[in-house]
């Protein structure tokens, strides 16, 4: 008798993966490809993707993993996808344009949006260009014909559901990323729509993670899927990653990838008036059950990947990790590229490297990468402390997930700076995929919690804390708007 398995499609910022996961939680096969983005030259900083291109990649990856897992029976199909990323569908059901999380086309109009305090309170997040509403507002300003074509907007994970079932809907955790969704009423909000000039009719019904749908006959035949196979509604990758590491209500989770959100489950929304100076997000959790409070340092892992791609494409993580380990207490320069202020509800616009002058001949390219890794660790440590204050939690350890934690020295820095043990469980680096599979098999009760495979114990590290203090001053100085003198 063949083993039951789930086919999981996971669309991240940098790449798309498709995996087959057994009903016991074993990763049987996984394949991936880099995502393709295009620039829209009408804007200062606008990127888009073509749904048809992404769909073709997904289909090819499905064929690849299915060839490797012919002995299993695909009982479920589900999806996980990056937050703040959306697909536009026209009135005829054609998916014609994609707005990824790295699209910032709405930024130049932030100051004209009314009712800012209402928006931030009832959506649980600061008004920024990151979320769906400002992407749509920016689209309307310079791509009016494309904006007027919108019949529906869905998240990428819900778009995958549309491909496999024909249902147009949006899951709670993804709806929270539009900034058109009221996290108190857990529904679309007309006042929010009015603030951005968006017709509420384009917003689909909100659906719970775990809802099951019939697969279309076309999909079953294309991929030779079982006639009894079902599509299970997935959700946002961060929430699913927390599910994948079986995060408990009294624990703090770190989901480190392109960015590094620090998350904590909460039954209630934090008091907005008391905490609005914090840079925090509060989202509906999967299926709308409770809330997830998040503090986020902004872009982290993407910085590391980009400097590696730019400077040292052929150098492995292992080699970089070994260099940092040998020079753990010899940080020759500081970097500032994580995007969020440690203290305030603002994004930094300036970054760079700080080093002693004159330029030292001892500095090599690994030192620049060492600085980037330390920048990530410093930012994460601050956000862990903030989340503890915000959620009124004092956790004795942190549960980690995400590919960003594959670098051992980064993990050790986080443990040292927070003075907390960092725990990694089996498949921590594929946690969103495991989380989606866990949702699929939740009714079957066959998946067990992953075993702990790494524990990073904190050590008393005054050296790193001293560097952190200098890093803080540097970040504030290069982003200060005070005049320092005339030439």
UniProtKB/TrEMBL annotation:
The keyword Kinase applies. Gene3D superfamilies: 3.30.420.40. Residues 6-243 form the Carbohydrate kinase FGGY N-terminal domain. Keywords: Kinase, Transferase. Pfam families: FGGY_N. GO terms for molecular function: kinase activity. PANTHER family: GLUCONOKINASE, SUGAR KINASE. Belongs to the FGGY kinase family. This is FGGY family carbohydrate kinase. It comes from Enterococcus hulanensis.
